[in-house]
Amino acid sequence: MTATSSALSATSSTRRSPSRSCVTRRWHWPPPVCLKGRRTAAYPALEPDVTAAGATYVDSDAVVDGEMVSARAWPDHPSWMREFIRLLQKKAPVTSKETAGVR
Q: What does the alpha-carbon distance between residue 63 and residue 41 come to, in Å, rounded to a whole number?
């Protein structure tokens, strides 16, 4: 451990805050292939990760891109669910027998 890193560790442990390396270092992960070329919403702090994965970040309550529906966070659930149900009805419509409970 270098003098600088031990000083950082000592300082951060006494203040009960994360060390500098945890705050400034980004996770190194292979970007998911499923987002490449897509438009998607996500929690605002994830915008750099979405962009790094090759997607276009959209700051909206419900974003539909093909068969994928995304939203930012739990307050967007009503809009997200509305778009999801709309997409589901289009892709897998319910017949009148299924609605009546007839098998």
A: 6
Model pLDDT for residues 33-79, shown as the tens digit of each residue: 788 899 999 999 999 989 988 999 999 999 999 999 999 999 999 99
pTM here?
Answer: 0.61
CATH architecture of 27-94: 3-Layer(aba) Sandwich (3.40)
Q: Which of 13, 34, 35, 31 is nearest to 22 (CA)?
A: 13
Phi-psi region of 8 (alpha: psi -120 to 50; beta: other; left: phi over 0): alpha
The tokens describing 20, both together, are 């500098």
